[in-house]
Design goal:
Length: 197
């Protein structure tokens, strides 16, 4: 191959790679609509309350706040504050084969909790207002290693309606649900642990 052909091939390959890195992730209408319904609240925080908890924990007897803190075309970061505890951030991503939900758990110094980045991935189209995230393989292995075998059948669900955002965890014998009132934005909190304003 002469130098001109080599340069042309190199240019085409480089151009294709650059285009691929800028191309939007493939998605389907229900996933896009769900993502957009959440993203429209970017920069706003809302107070919520526990609506269902069949194994009540005193930890949740506190002010509950969700903050749609950071949004781009592929990822939403939504910290969940429980009183003064800012250890939890929900991360929803477009993956090219659906949507993923991860739970980023940090210590107050910003370091990772031993149980972090667990979650699930959509397995169907879902709905514009509702998506389900059955537990993924990484999370099953993490839960098994950390002595949390009851969590390997988790499914997380997120509902987004004009007046309400709901986070729900279900598995056999367990249901936990928090509803947030989207009609009354509140002052935005500081960055969650491990993140910066």
């Amino acid at each position: 191959m002469n130098i001109q052909k080599w340069l042309l091939v190199s240019f085409i390959l480089t151009s294709n790679a650059a285009f691929a890195s800028q191309a939007p992730l493939v998605s389907i209408p229900t996933h896009d609509a769900f993502f957009s319904n959440l993203a429209q609240h970017c920069g706003k925080a809302f107070e919520g309350k526990v609506a269902v908890d069949n194994q009540p924990s005193p930890a949740f007897d506190a002010k509950l706040v969700m903050f749609v803190r950071k949004c781009d075309q592929a990822e939403l970061q939504i910290p969940f504050y429980v009183g003064d505890n800012a250890s939890r951030t929900w991360i929803i991503k477009k993956t090219g084969s659906g949507l993923s939900l991860k739970h980023d758990h940090r210590h107050k110094d910003g370091t990772d909790d031993s149980v972090t980045m667990y979650g699930g991935h959509t397995q169907d189209a879902g709905y514009n207002q509702i998506q389900s995230f059955p537990v993924d393989q990484y999370s099953k292995e993490l839960f098994a290693q950390q002595g949390l075998p009851q969590s390997i059948t988790n499914t997380w669900q997120i509902y987004i309606y004009p007046e309400m955002f709901t986070y729900r965890l279900v598995r056999e014998g367990r249901e936990f649900r928090v509803d947030f009132d989207l009609t009354k934005p509140i002052p935005t909190p500081a960055a969650p642990w491990g993140y910066e304003d």
